[in-house]
Structures are given as structure tokens and as C-alpha cells.
């Protein structure tokens, strides 16, 4: 008796990638430039890095109570949108909400799940990692200082 081969692991892709795969599989289909660019199908250079980077925002203080354990929230820091999360009791993290794909404003979907409304990329607010294409790298991290019941971003 031989062991059956393991099932291939599933790879999650965004809606544009799925649409592109279907269109490319159809014989005789020629994509018009407008359709191709709507899903970012035009050739783009490889990202310089797939590693999380760090950025800063204007120093902003918020109440820690605004961010319950296991949740994330988008707040303003100057003109910048920032995702602040508390993945574990007393552990606060923050990220730029600027999508690493093409700069969309990443939103909190539920709990620690983040999604970009432009092309469907997803991130995990626990550490900012990109969990669903087309995001090429994690969200940029922003320093957070905890002082009593206050959080200072930036
Ligand atoms: S800008 Fe394309 S997924 Fe965010």
C-alpha cells in the first residue's frame, strides 16, 4: 500500500487575480487596455522589498481604551490614517493604513482583519503582514509608546 500524495496547499488570491486567471484561460480573448489596467494587469516593476518597513506620522495621543484587546481601529494622526491594534492585553501596535500595493486606504473589516477596498488585498493587524494578494509586503509599522492609559503614535 502506498501513501497518497498530499493535497496541494491552497493559495489565496484577490478578486483581480481570480478574474485575470479566468480571462487569460479563455482562448481568443484579447484584453483591452482599460480592462487590464483596472486590475493592475499592466506590467509593474518588482517591489524593492517584501520586508516590513517603518514610517512615522505626526505625534498623536489617543486613549488606550479606544482599542479593546483583539481589535483594530483606524485613527487620524495629522493627515495620515493609522491602524492601531491591541493583539494581546497591553500590547499595542500601529501601521500606516496606506496599502503597499498602490496606496489604497486599508480598512478594518472585523477584529484583526484588514482589507484594502481598491483591489482586495488583506492584512493581519497582529503584525501588519500581508495575507492576501496583491499586497507585496506588510503594512509599514509606526512606533507606539504606552504611558498609563494613553497611546502616543509616531
Ligand atoms: S491599492 Fe491595490 S489592493 Fe490596495
UniProtKB/TrEMBL annotation:
SUPFAM superfamilies: ISP domain
Keyword Cytoplasm: no
Sorted UniProt keywords: 2Fe-2S, Disulfide bond, Iron, Iron-sulfur, Metal-binding
Keyword Disulfide bond in record: yes
Residue intervals of the Rieske domain: 59-153
Source species, domain of life: Bacteria
Gene3D superfamilies, sorted: Rieske [2Fe-2S] iron-sulphur domain
Classification via Pfam families: Rieske
General function of this protein: Iron-sulfur subunit of the cytochrome bc1 complex, an essential component of the respiratory electron transport chain required for ATP synthesis. The bc1 complex catalyzes the oxidation of menaquinol and the reduction of cytochrome c in the respiratory chain. The bc1 complex operates through a Q-cycle mechanism that couples electron transfer to generation of the proton gradient that drives ATP synthesis.
Record protein name field: Cytochrome bc1 complex Rieske iron-sulfur subunit
Natural source organism: Dietzia aurantiaca
Amino acid at each position: 500500500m502506498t501513501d497518497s500524495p498530499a493535497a496541494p496547499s491552497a493559495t489565496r488570491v484577490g478578486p483581480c487575480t481570480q478574474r485575470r486567471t479566468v480571462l487569460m484561460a479563455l482562448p481568443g480573448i484579447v484584453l483591452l487596455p482599460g480592462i487590464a489596467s483596472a486590475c493592475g494587469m499592466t506590467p509593474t516593476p518588482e517591489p524593492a522589498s517584501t520586508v516590513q518597513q517603518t514610517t512615522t506620522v505626526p505625534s498623536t495621543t489617543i486613549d488606550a481604551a479606544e482599542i479593546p484587546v483583539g481589535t483594530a481601529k483606524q485613527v487620524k494622526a495629522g493627515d495620515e490614517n493609522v491602524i492601531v491594534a491591541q493583539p494581546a492585553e497591553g500590547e499595542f501596535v500601529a501601521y500606516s493604513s496606506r496599502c503597499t500595493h498602490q496606496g489604497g486606504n486599508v480598512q478594518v473589516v472585523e477584529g484583526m482583519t484588514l482589507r484594502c477596498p481598491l483591489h482586495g488585498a488583506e492584512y493581519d493587524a497582529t503584525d501588519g503582514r500581508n495575507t492576501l494578494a496583491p499586497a507585496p509586503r506588510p503594512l509599514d509599522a509606526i512606533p507606539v509608546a504606552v504611558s498609563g492609559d494613553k497611546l502616543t503614535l509616531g
